[in-house]
Predict the 3D structure of the following.
Amino acid sequence: MKNTCEKPTLTALSFKYDAFIDQCAGILENRTLKLYPGPTGSVLFATLGILILVLIPSQIKVRADQTINARTFPAILAWIMLVCSAFNMINDGIRVIRRQKLPFIEMNLLNEVKAMIILLFLVIYALLMPLAGFSIASVVFALLMLLYFRVKEWKYYLLVTVLALGIGFLFKNVLNVRLP
Amino acid sequence: MNLFIEGFQQLFQISNFIAMNIGLLLGMIFGAIPGLTVILCIVLFLPFTYSMGAIESFMFLLGMYCAGSYGGSISAILIKTPGTPHATATMLDGYPLSQRGQTHKALNMALMASTFGGIFSAVVLLFLAPQVSHFAQKMGTPEYFLVCAFGLTIIAGVSGKTLTNGIIAGALGLFIATIGLDPMTSNTRFIFNNINLYSGFDLVICLIGLFALSEVLNRSKRSEKIGKVSLHKEDPQANRITPGEYRKVARPAFISSLIGVIIGIIPGTGASMASFVSYDRAKRMSKTPEEFGKGSLEGIAATETANNAVTGATLIPLLTLGIPGDACVAIMLGALMINGLTPGPKLFVDHGVTMYAIMLGLIFVNLFMLLQGKFMTRIFAKIIKIPIAVLTPVIVIFCFAGAYSVKTSMFDIHVALVFAVLAYLLNKLQFPVIPVLLGLVLGPITEENFRRALILSDGSWSIFASSPISLGLLAIIFLSLFVIVRGKIQENKKDKQHVPT
């Protein structure tokens, strides 16, 4: 009797969860973001190059009598980034002057939100590990991921739980790693 | 000859063969499941090599590398979804043959051809590597820096959409490798008073972030539906490869092996190129070209011999010069370094016995691959049905445990997450990740040789053009750059022609 009462409740909950996810996905599905990878990448790496050059004096201490020292190689790399970024920017600039379209990509908002959610799960897992221990954190994370992927079959929940505990056992007892 | 015999003795230890077979099993599983990659497999299990010796760990990784190359063909033949990019060419004929009720024949041919290609390249490696190493020993620090620069340039050139993006990505990898203590002066660099950064970023942690966790982030947007697997209810007699069929495929298999070896030696080219070039060559040479694309055994044999012939060939520049031919081999280079074997021209001088054991081991890796493939294909056919959604959390748990095990530090897990986000962003901005990996791997030796050469010449850059070998290497670098730039220009022109006005 108890089982027959529980089953419809669980199914109803599952339907509600699915409907909620579908509703959220429906809102984001057709929304896109335009990204110009060329100029964005050039600006980012030019900034990184400048940042490296600015940080070198404070972050790498060297003796004054050495001309070839620990700063030489990172400085060259920073200049390589700057020169290549500048080259890309000039190329993009020429395209704009010639009124040619800059290549862009349309990012689907739903996909990006999905990736962010996975990243959030990863961060939660990393934060939970020192608090709850490796095994519990891993099981929680694995079950959370299956729920997120809307896996319906209970045997997969059992499988990932066993695998999560098995991996912990393997690292602790076979590789002698002291996991949190 | 002594090295050869001693290498044989070192190889023949039960632990090496156990590691080899576990590696093969894992490689075949990861290669067979669409969505899982051989790189991912190697990255995930790299922490396990920490407790192994040099030969044992290399057998373990080579097992994954070779079996992964074959494993891709299993799903290509069974469900028309190549497990690896280079198995796409195998799919062209493997799947139609499977649809005609000859799945076993297709799988057997792929296995036989893979084994032949693998053994062929292992033999070439065994005879060619010592010769290349002998020549490489004549190189000094400036020449060795130029070899590193060549490896980085060619990978940067072929990986990215533009050469400049590839160079920026390579520079980023080299820069990340500089963080921590300077190996020459012990000065700290970019550590921001963080004690965790003193020894820099561990290669394994970076790899877990760049290739495994980033893949999990990318996976969130894909929905891989697995087709129906049809391996049963076939007439065993109709599925045997006849002697006549073996004779028919012998010539394309041999030629494809040669193509695979030649392409494999050139850094940055890879198995996909070898597969398609061989497929095209086999089709042109075939007496029955009309069968190609409809289930031709010659097509399967050509592609599979070629992509497995690459495996041994990529080890030639790796073991002799320290230049990895592809991303998987770059990670193996990391495994060598973990075991205290510094890659480069002196590797054969300092660790000749180990090198011979590794090269001989590659032959056995291929033989055991044949055995495992022969008896375990049915199991692999079931494994590929496991949804990727179920495997994803397991991969992440492996990543976190692996990252933590390096220094038993939570900091490393956080670093791996940062690298995952970095790879995700680089992917969005169309910067290739492979040159970052190569920069990370080659960073320390590139910088050391660069600085030593400049110190020797009192800061004069002319040292990089002071010997015939240097001049030859410079010529190769400029020639490669010219070919890459010309290729990119032609690609752009083609793209423009295809853009509708």
